[in-house]
Amino acid sequence: MFDLSHAKFILKEMAKYHALPIALRVKRPQVFEEDVRPYFRHFNIDSGLGEKEKKQVETDLLEQVAIATNNADCYVEGVRELYRDLQKYRDSVDEVKDNLYTTIVHYDLWINNIMLKYDDNGLPCKVKFVDFQISQYGSLAHDVVFFLFSSVESGVLDQHFDELISLYYQSFLNCLNSLKIPTERYSYVGFLKEVHKQAPIEIATALFMVKIILADHSTLPEDYKDLDLSVMSKNVGKENIIRRTSDIIRLAEKYNFFLSH
């Protein structure tokens, strides 16, 4: 997981990544509508899964949560509800309307899809986001919340979450201001409302992905190229995965994300 300094650096660059398409939409709307927007339609990344496979994913997830919470029904049922909301979201049609926070969303910004370059002092100086195969048009909050809960140390989230959210917001505004985009309507309160609105979906995604992110390497096939559902079943109950699952639920509840939908 990323420590505080890495998280700050990545969030600053993520803010630029999200701000630039918004600037293009505002300054050159015709170019955006003709050359950008049509290529980032919503699609269901689970469309290739059968009902049996979908059920197995849900079963594995709930077992993972049950172990992490000592079979606390409120959390198991809460995550069941969040996961089903995630499925509804993925099954939805492309009806995203432009608002202050709609942009090109990566939708898969976790450790494996972030490359860093370091300077002579060992500090990160450049970042590249890779693997845009599920990028879509939507709320920037999806990337922010998923990155934090999937890829940043639990202790950092515990002590610096508000600082990190504020840093992203200010970097986002700085980028828009540098391009002379009016930012009067981008209040911090409005931004926080957007984060809370989208957060439950990404909490469910982070809980789903933790078995992949922290998978025991011995469970990965030699020709591992993409999501293999058997990897998820094999990693249910692993100590580091259970610990992170517990942390995600605890922190999501701490910041009013867990059942805020």
TrEMBL record:
Gene3D superfamilies: 3.90.1200.10. SUPFAM superfamilies: Protein kinase-like (PK-like) (SSF56112). It comes from the Eukaryota. Residues 1-178 form the CHK kinase-like domain. InterPro entries: CHK_kinase-like, EcKL, Kinase-like_dom_sf. This is CHK kinase-like domain-containing protein. It comes from Glossina morsitans morsitans.
